[in-house]
Amino acid sequence: VEFEHAPNRLRALPSWLLAQSAAQANRAVSKAVSESGASRSHYAALASLEEFGPLNQAALSDHIGLDRSDVVRLVDELAAAKLVVRDPDPGDRRRNIVTLTTRGRQRLAQLDDLLAQAQTEALDRLDRAERVELVKLLSRLLGASSDPGRPGANMG
Amino acid sequence: VEFEHAPNRLRALPSWLLAQSAAQANRAVSKAVSESGASRSHYAALASLEEFGPLNQAALSDHIGLDRSDVVRLVDELAAAKLVVRDPDPGDRRRNIVTLTTRGRQRLAQLDDLLAQAQTEALDRLDRAERVELVKLLSRLLGASSDPGRPGANMG
DNA sequence: CTCATCTCAGCAAGACTGAGATGT
DNA sequence: CACATCTCAGTCTTGCTGAGATGA
């Protein structure tokens, strides 16, 4: 789905506006993040491990919304880059416990910066008040009852 | 990308909120539209033909933001359902001119109804004023300078 | 011959499914 | 045994790419 000279019937649909806006933001984010060889999934995984501590792969799957099959490959990549380590759980050896390394923590901080920059780039047509309002509306739309972690903190 | 118990780092990103909102709206739209055997592309094509009149496939590709290769298959499907006809352009026989049929026009009207219903469903957490505000912000975000076809007309 | 248009085959990324291996 | 976790192979969808056919 692209921008283009779409018919007015489409332009009038909120769902279309959301799709276009999301695609635009996604391009900015992908561009920023992929320049460092990472992806959205990488960031989501590192962020989850930073916030919740070591996780098994099933839990990681829940946090990042990625299928369990694909978490296998994701962790392969992260482990190959030494950003995480994958060890068998001594208490239940069916499980692999994924743990953030120091290097992974550094990479996360780096990605935070890239992401923050991508956000301001993607939203540069809106002023600060409008960005706050947009975040508020989207949060309500998604069913957030209250402030889920200082919206605006990453908006420059 | 799904909802889930995502880390706060993700929840704070406007791009993530947009992606989630768009995915949610897309589910509602896909569900509504696919029940009648159609898709977003079908609707976009029918809407373009209704607004701009008969188009060749390259022009159609521009209007609906779909790759030219894929327009071939899309027009195949629409023609098989008798919603459009594909005729060689008598003035330039390299071109196929795609024209909306009466049946296609009826289908478009039917899809309009389904889409309008899906919009209200997707946005039901927002009241009327908030929906108008959201549409305004998204339009600005996408670079719309002014009112592109009465936003709100399909919002119930 | 060069160029535009359409058609087709195939690739690549993402999300998913099903079966098997390992361990409880 | 049933069950959970991880792994692997393969499918499906979407967007794209490249080559060929037709015709200007």
SSE diagram, text form:
2 copies of one chain form a homodimer.
Chain A: H1 8-11, H2 14-34, H3 40-52, E1 55-56, H4 57-64, H5 68-80, E2 84-89, E3 92-100, H6 102-122, H7 128-141
The structure holds a DNA duplex (24 and 24 nucleotides).
What brief labels describe this structure?
homodimer; 156 residues; mainly alpha; three-stranded antiparallel beta sheet; 7 helices; 3 strands; elongated; disordered C terminus; DNA-binding
Structural summary, described in words:
- 2 copies of one chain form a homodimer.
- Chain A has helices at residues 8-11, 14-34, 40-52, 57-64, 68-80, 102-122, 128-141; strands at residues 55-56, 84-89, 92-100.
- A 3-stranded antiparallel sheet of chain A has the order 1-3-2.
- In chain A, a hairpin with a 2-residue loop joins strand 2 (84-89) and strand 3.
- Chain A is elongated, with a radius of gyration of 18 Å.
- Helix content of chain A is 60%, strand content 11%.
- The longest helix of chain A is centred in the first third of the chain and has 21 residues, at 14-34.
- Mean pLDDT of chain A is 90; it is low at 146-156.
- With 156 residues, chain A is mainly alpha-helical.
- Chain A contains 7 helices and 3 strands; from the N terminus they run H-H-H-E-H-H-E-E-H-H.
- Chains A and B meet through helix 1, helix 2, helix 3, helix 4 and helix 6 of A and helix 1, helix 2, helix 3, helix 4 and helix 6 of B.
- Chain A binds a DNA duplex (24 and 24 nucleotides) through residues 56-58, 66-73, 92-96.
* Poorly predicted runs of chain A: 146-156
Distance between the termini of chain A: 28 Å
Order of helices and strands of chain A: HHHEHHEEHH
Rg value of chain A: 18 Å
Which chain pair shows the most residues in contact? A-B, 68 and 68 residues
What is the global morphology of chain A? elongated
Helix content of chain A: 55-70%
Oligomer: homodimer
* β-sheet strand percentage of chain A: 5-15%
Instruction: Profile the largest sheet of chain A.
Output: 3 strands, antiparallel
Per DSSP, the total helix count of chain A is 7
Q: What structural category arises from helix and sheet content of chain A?
A: mainly alpha
Mean pLDDT of chain A: 90
Question: Would you report the number of β strands of chain A?
Answer: 3
Strand order of the main beta sheet of chain A, please?
Answer: 1-3-2
